[in-house]
Amino acid sequence: MAFTVVDPVAGTRLAEYPTMTADEVAAVVERADLAFRSWSRGASPGERAAPLARAAELLREHRDELADIAVREMGKRRDEAAMEVDWAVGHFAWAAENVDMLTADLPLQSEPGLRLVLRPAPLGAVLAIIPWNFPYLNVARIVAPNIAVGNTIMVKPAPQCPESAAAVERLLHEAGLPDGACTTLYAEVDQIPAVIADRRVVGVSVTGSRRAGRSVAETAGRHLTRVSLELGGSDPFLALSTHDMVGLVEQAFWMRNFNSGQVCSAAKRFIVMDDLYDEFLAGLVARMRACVTGVPDAEGVEVCGLSSQVAAERLEAQVDRAVEQGARVLCGGRRDGTFYEPTVLVDVAPGTEAYEEELFGPVAVVHRVGDEEAAIALANDTPYGLGARVFTTDPAQGERVADLLEAGMVAVNANVGGGPYIPFGGIKESGAGRIGGVVGTHEFVNLKVLTIAS
After folding, report:
1. Statement: residue 1 has pLDDT above 90
2. Of the residues 264, 316, 357, 406, which is catalytic?
3. pTM, whole model, 2 decimals?
4. Among 230, 316, 358, 443, which one carries the catalytic annotation?
5. Which residues form the Aldehyde dehydrogenase domain (predicted)?
6. Can you list the domains of the chain with their CATH numbers?
7. Is 24 an active-site residue?
8. C-alpha to C-alpha distance for 72 and 81, rounded to whole angstroms
């Protein structure tokens, strides 16, 4: 078996990375544990920050080369691939610049004669299971802060994205990280339980599907291993009022279709007030029809094909079942190889599969509601709880609605953010825990209570 890079457009095999044997996987765990005990645990914050800062510089220097890899692996639009490298640079730079904050004591209420603090202490080797849709960003946002606080990382990439993972590992070593501090784990799914069961592995971070999250969480639970889960979403976009319908539709288009719609926190369900519905729907359908589709390097292209033939066929099957269950396709709805036309669905009823599932591609589901209460109820009527967006001309309404939405992240008249300082994550079946910021970084540290007599 091998991790294989397949050109999504041409379908040709471009590179193969052999899957590790059981002994090779065990050796990666050994190296990660050794690097923790011999370097990261005892290194000063500044000593850990230096290679992270240098890694940010190297990623920036190799921006075009790294973007080329992402285009080859998943057919990402070239400018979006370069943008993703920039985001990864930001995560490494932020971790380096804020290492003192991430490792600083947190004061606690104390009694007379005592000083109490929470002192973040590293735990050891962490396994990060990474998806394919953002191969650089998803690596950077778990690797950078964990190295900063003194953990070591084993990165298990998606099977179709081994080349990007190898490139990041190479640049991290060039930046000065010692052997074992960050290592790529080319392991099959059935090899992962043994890694989680190893007592030297102190935590597991999973970004992926609900099925993957449940499997990992079950294994981690048996061994009382810490786990952080980011498992996708079916984010609502609530259109409550607007002074600029053209602008609102344009935001809806890009919040659905960035990265060809393959974003866990993308807006996927558009919940529109009755007085806006007809104009919004007509505008979105027209914009989706006018979308420029094509290969990653084509000039002016807005949406490319999906990451693989399997992904495109899966989305096609979901839309076909939605239609069988009563939904209507107002535009799109057809597949050509890995390309799936930007699509608008209406009449997706409660109890149908499309109402419950995440549609991972350029498909927007639009609902009509009569009032604010109905909008909130529909937004929350999902097994997911990752992000949400509220658009309104009334700031008080925006915050009121945001408080009632069941999501880990809510934006009012804005997009859900993903910067390195933001604790990214959700609730319900979108997962548990956070990635990023101080909160996310502390998922895999021991917040040790120190009581010190004065």
Report:
1. no
2. 264
3. 0.96
4. 230
5. 3-449
6. 2-231 (3.40.605.10), 235-412 (3.40.309.10)
7. no
8. 10
